[in-house]
Write a structure and sequence with these properties.
Two copies of one chain form a homodimer.
Chain A: E1 3-10, E2 14-21, E3 26-33, H1 40-57, E4 62-70, E5 73-75, E6 80-82, H2 95-103, E7 107-111, H3 112-123, E8 132-137, E9 141-147, E10 150-151, H4 183-186, H5 188-197, H6 206-214, H7 218-242, E11 246-250, H8 257-271, H9 273-277, E12 281-284, H10 291-308
Parallel strand pairs in A: 1-4, 4-7, 8-11, 11-12
Antiparallel strand pairs in A: 1-2, 2-3, 5-6, 8-9, 9-10
Helix pairs in contact in A: 1-2, 3-10, 5-7, 6-7, 7-8
Chain lengths: 309, 309
Amino acid sequence: MPEYAIGVDLGGTNLKAAAIASSGEMLDRTNATTDLTEGPERVVDDIVACIESLRDRFAGSRLAGAGIGVPGFIRMAEGFIVGSHNLPPLNNYPIRDAIEKRLGTQVFLENDANAAALGEKWMGAGRDVEDLVLLTLGTGIGGGVISRGRVMHGFVGMAAELGHITVVPNGNPCGCGNRGCVEKHASATAIESMANLLALGQNLSAKDVYDLAVAGEERARAIFKTMGQCLGIAIASLINIFNYPLYLMSGGVLAAWDYFYPALLDEVRWRSFTFRNTNTRIEKALLGSEAGLYGAAYLPVQAQLTTRH
Amino acid sequence: MPEYAIGVDLGGTNLKAAAIASSGEMLDRTNATTDLTEGPERVVDDIVACIESLRDRFAGSRLAGAGIGVPGFIRMAEGFIVGSHNLPPLNNYPIRDAIEKRLGTQVFLENDANAAALGEKWMGAGRDVEDLVLLTLGTGIGGGVISRGRVMHGFVGMAAELGHITVVPNGNPCGCGNRGCVEKHASATAIESMANLLALGQNLSAKDVYDLAVAGEERARAIFKTMGQCLGIAIASLINIFNYPLYLMSGGVLAAWDYFYPALLDEVRWRSFTFRNTNTRIEKALLGSEAGLYGAAYLPVQAQLTTRH
């Protein structure tokens, strides 16, 4: 009997789910919207409905379990989310156990960037390695670290908050309380902030700044250069810390790769003798916004593999 | 039959070795000097002589193997040292295999800071955890990361070069090619450099600066405060990256703990929400200069434990 798992990507706006075979083949998917206005029970209802609709379609197959990727910190032991800005009603709510009880199958909760990193390791750009670091470059910067094939969680589940590596000690203020976090100097939001500082236009989006860079606007190009340098400081330190073979980037900002990567690479080269002396790779992730679905689905599959060994 | 292992700490000047029971009890030790003037074969002779003199004393016990901690990067697969400033004749020499052949017992080569981290995990301040980070504060800053009870090596063995985390993007130049490495802002050498910049005296040692701080000299205290802040930036990022329960410090600079730790703690507190929201501990290591001997001896013991499971 073929085996599959269900991966869920729960965002503040969208709810996505996919049925993925244990072999890694995407079998089917479904989408819904996340309704946060009626409390956590409603969100649980919607997630359960998505999972059940997929399960109904594969009644002849064995369900290994479900994984759910969410933005925010996970308290792994308790199975709930803390400090999520995108899903405030779910904070401290026992979401994992609530869904598990309704479904009668094992449910894993995971930070969305961690899930994306695991997805890339399973079926994406990291298939050939056991250790990798992923940075998701969006409105913020998320991170996931895969160590010996598994998500690195730390002791409460808050590991890999790579967006909060300090790259400019007295730099831009961050919501986390720090200053100079890489996510305040190298995210889409940081790009928009720099465009504003340079008076490039009214309320430009990161995409607008990218279009200006493509059109030859030197100040827009300087923004991506600065962003690449700041990101490079963080990646150089990560390489010196981990000596992993692979550092991946994903997220919307990746579109501007040609404008920030050369500066990033220059920065990493001079800041990391490990980079200069090894075949360390810095690459684009491959699975795009589906990485989290793959990673979430892989959680129950991986748990079974470990148990069997 | 009781089992034991031999740990070796090979420095640029001193060669130390100890016989340590598999239970962790230090049984006996020996010391010699490192003679680098006559090439790598002579160093191998001296190491083998140290190990054999200990082995002769425990003829009735089973030797699990020997571990050797060395300053420099280890190419784990090849079993040799690269880029060691303290042991230049040994660079790229197949030291592990040479010793193994002579002794007829399994030999493990390990970076000295990694060995110290493992020693603290086995018999020191990290006995109650499976994951920890160690920073050795001496003339430079070394690092070791213990992940799930084992040394994190990275893919060629260059992981945990924590002294080369960038904390001041345009800071002091470092021999590694970077600027603003934490080891150029928070080591004994950095303390001496700051004392020179403040014209505190002629060629003051870090110990001299410490004595001035104890005597109430405000500029000496400001140096330790700056040093603590710079170290705090690195430790805050490490906490945000790993979310491990324990961060240890060892080395000669530890004597000035009361003068740098308050500034370090302030820095970590505001730069790491993970620190503020978890029971993360930042502590002094316990085994002092013997940590490396314990960790080196534990390498063959741990390898056997793994094989048996």
